Amino acid sequence: MEDTIAAISTAYGEGGIGIIRISGEHSGQILNKIFQAKAGGVCKPRHLTYGHIVDIYNENKIIDEVLAAFMPGPKSYTCEDVVEISCHGSIISLRNILALILKCGARPAEKGEFTKRAFLNGRLDLSQAEAVMSLISAKTDKAFEVAMTQLEGALSARVKGIRGRILDLLVELAVNIDYPDEDIEEITYSRLEVELLQISKSILKLLSTASTGRIIREGLAVSIIGKPNVGKSSLMNALLKETRAIVTEIPGTTRDTIEEYISIKNIPVKLTDTAGIRETDDIIEKLGIEKSKKAFNIADLVIFVLDGSRDLTGEDMQIAEHIGKRPVIVLLNKSDLGRALNTEQVKTLLPHSKVIETAITEGMGIEEIEEYIEHMVYCGDVAQNESMLITVVRHKELLEKALAAITDAIAMARGKEALDFLEIDIRNAYELLGEIVGETVSDDIIDEIFSRFCLGK
Ligand code: GDP
C-alpha cells in the first residue's frame, strides 16, 4: 500500500471546487471504499461519477458531495491507476477527505511526486517534467507559451537530435579505435572537425536563447534610481498605470523600496522603486536605502531618472558613478519644464547608456522605455515569436559544459591527437546533454528537481 500516494492538487484557500489526487495500484480500491455513487455501483473508468465521500471509520457519515474519476494506468498522468476527487473547494472538506484516504493506506505525496512518477514511468522526459513546473508558475502569456512548447517536447527533440549526431560520431570513432586494421572507412581528422563544428553550432544556437529565456521565465529585475523628487514614483505609477507608489512633493518621502510585478510587452518585469542612495539619519529611510541597494545590485537593468529641466548635481554624479557599467536607461525627465540637460552630458557620465527624454506626468516617453526594454530582452537572434527558448538554468549550464567538451574535442582534432582522447570529450558531451532530458541523470539530481515542485503536482 506504501506506494499509493495522495495529495490536495488545487491551491489552498476558498474555491469553487478542490481536487484530491491519488496515484498507485491501490487508488481504485481506496475510492471504492470511501465513495458511494448516487446511482449505486462503482466508478466506471474515465467517467465522472456523482456521489458522496463517506467516513467508513465513523458510521459512514457523509464528508462531502463530490464527483469522482478513476483513470486506470498506463493511460493516466502518472501511468499508474489515478483517482481524482472533485469536492467543494473548502480546506475542511479537502483535508478531511485526504485524511480519510491516508487512513485507508495511501501515504502523503511528496512535492512533485505525481510528475516524478510520470517521468520515472517514461511518460515525460526530465525537461518536459520541468516544463510542468514552469507552466504552473508562468506569470505572462509568453512564459506560458514557452513552457507549453517545452512540455510538448520541442527542447527534448532538439537535444535528442544533437545527441543522435554525437552518437553516430561515437560509433564511428569506436569502430576506428577498436578495429584499426579492418577494412572500414577511416575517419579523418578534417571530417571529425567538420562534424564537431556543426554540433557545436547547434548547441550554441540553443544557448543563444538562454538569456531571453531566463527573463521570460523569471522576469526582468529593473531598479529605478535617482535623487529625490525627480519623478521615480511617477514613473513607477505610469508603468503600473495605477497609483500604487505614493507620489509626493516632499523630497525623501518615498520611504521604502516598493516592488511590483508588471508585464511590459508580455515580459514579466519586477520593478523596484528605490528610496535613493542618500546619506540620511532617518532610520526608516536608511532601511529603505539598504533594500534599494540590494535590489540595485541584482538588477538586470537600471532606470536612472534625472530632472532634465535642471543642471546635474553632485548627487546625480554619485549615482552615475554607482551605476558604473550596468545596463542603464537614463531618463531626462520633466522635459515639459524646459531643457537644462542634454544627451551628450549624460553620455560623458555613462557612455553606454540609452538616453530617453521624458515628461512622465504628461505621459511622454513611456512607450519608448517599454520598447527599449522589449528590444533589450529579445537580444541577438532571438525572434519575438520564438517560443523554443532555454529557460531553465540547469539546461543552460549543461549546454555550456557540453559545448566546452565539444570545443576541446575540436582543438584535439585540429592537433591530430589520439582518437581515444577525443572520444572521451565527445562522450562527455553526449552524457551532459543526456542529463537535460534525464537519460543520464543521477537520482540526487532527480530528487532535487522534483523537490522544487509544489505539492499535489
Ligand atoms: P520621486 O521622489 O523621484 O519619486 O519623485 P515623484 O515621482 O514623487 O515626483 C516628484 C514631483 O515631480 C511630483 O509632484 C510629480 O508630479 C512631479 N513630476 C514627476 N514627473 C514630472 C514631469 O515629467 N513633469 C513635471 N512637470 N512634473 C513631474
Which keywords apply here?
18% strand, single chain, six-stranded mixed β-sheet, binds guanosine-5'-diphosphate, alpha/beta, 457 residues
Describe the protein's topology.
Layout: E1 5-8, E2 15-23, H1 27-34, E3 35-37, E4 48-55, E5 61-71, E6 82-89, H2 91-103, E7 107-108, H3 113-120, H4 126-137, H5 141-151, H6 154-178, H7 189-207, H8 210-218, E8 220-225, H9 232-240, E9 258-264, E10 267-273, H10 283-298, E11 301-307, H11 314-323, E12 328-333, H12 343-349, E13 354-357, H13 366-377, H14 393-414, H15 419-437, H16 443-451
Parallel strand pairs: 1-7, 8-10, 8-11, 11-12, 12-13
Antiparallel strand pairs: 1-2, 2-6, 3-4, 4-5, 5-6, 9-10
Describe the structure.
The protein is built from 16 helices and 13 strands. With 457 residues, the chain is of the alpha/beta class. The strands form 2 sheets. The protein has a 7-stranded mixed β-sheet with strand order 3-4-5-6-2-1-7. The protein has a 6-stranded mixed β-sheet with strand order 9-10-8-11-12-13, sandwiched between helices. The two termini are 20 Å apart. The structure holds guanosine-5'-diphosphate. Residues 226, 228-234, 247-249, 254, 333-334, 336-337, 359-361 line the site of guanosine-5'-diphosphate.
